Amino acid sequence: MSGVYWVGSDPVTATREDSSDERRDRLLAHAAVTLRQLSGVLDPLGARFAERGFSLYLVGGSVRDAVLSRLGSDLDFTTDARPEQVQAILRGWAEHTWDTGIAYGTVSAVRDGQHIEITTFRADTYDQVSRNPEVRFGDTLDEDLIRRDFTINAMAVRIGADGAQEFLDPLDGMKDLLAGIIDTPAAPETSFTDDPLRMLRAVRFVSQLGFVPAPRVVVAITEMVDAIGRITVERVAAELDKLILGDHPVDGVDALVETGLAERVLPEIPGMKLAIDEHHQHKDVYWHSLTVLQQAVDLEEADPDLILRWAALLHDIGKPATRRHEPDGGVSFHHHEVVGAKMVRKRMKALKYPKSVVEDVANLVFLHLRFHGYDEGRWTDSAVRRYVTDAGELLPRLHKLVRADCTTRNKRRAARLQGNYDDLERRIAELAAQEDLQRVRPDLDGNAIMELLDIPAGPIVGRAWRFLKELRLDRGPLDRDEAEAALLEWWSREKPSG
Question: Where is this region: Disordered (predicted)?
């Protein structure tokens, strides 16, 4: 196995005129700098393994991300030491260790803020029924690397006893990384048969890295999509979340659809290709939804927002089921937000998403059209209060979703829609300065209601409370005398006779 020693390399900014060798050298130099910053962890760890006669290699996504200057706090290693020997080596050095993955040869640890996973060389075989391998420990690094999912994850860095670091790339992963290609070390049919989850990982890397699958990978996924049924819905959902949170989610979603995987795991998305958007007949609802997703991403203020991104992608999934051709030749999708919210709940529950995620995404889908009844300030204060109250904690996300949903190419119409929403946000701010819009509650609580009406706890108290909340939304805050007078008037009409 050939290697490149990179100690002492210095990074230089790459240019378009660089040859592939020059780009490779510069990326390796950047990676060397990145890893030297971790020498406080890497050097003593490498020394401990070497002292006991074992080799240690940084591997997989850790090497890929170091080369791409995006390495986080997770470090993956492989070694010829067996798990029990790894535990002994880490004892007294790691701050904490875990053996939850020891059946698969993995020992986890933490040191100086770095989460470390060390796995014994593997040469697994698969039953091709589930994705669970029959764990078999290997003896060589080459044997371990060739079983990995993609060539860009099959590069390694030997961590020497003296601080030296040697880059090892027997499967030409760097070539694919430079080309932005997602390819498998073995034939993709073999790789995906062993573990069908790798098909989803391929499109996930489209989103995360901006790479494209090799043609043979696309062909294999397209022909083998049914095998994704071997994967648990929890694992599918985890990959979908990573895809939606990537730097290039639109490309990832489109790859999911084009390979046919979406038909198996999220069929509502390709289903949107059947409907033409009534406002934008130059493109279908599918591409409109991808545009909204990208515009929602552009409106994020800090970290990627999982709830907002899912809501942006799924906000119009109710359109195919509600499409109607009107007599004037137009197309309508009446109540698609209601149908869409129900579809979101059904699909995300089937994927076993947490209830809070399901409800947040579904509520945003349900509310995304509400603003379109607002026209140049004609909403009453009551309508504004209800908009804020119905959105609750989702209001900041709803603001972004509504703005992202404006994809018209008509500049005047786009400016009018955005201006109207500016006006709505101004009115929300003005009302919020006068009253607590985020906590609109009746002006009397349950105890006060029971005392005033001289009734025990029960359903009637709830009805009275809801009446007062509706009154609060309509009229704004009331003083106690006004609230009591209104409640007594209501009670005179609603009080059971006899």
Answer: 1-21
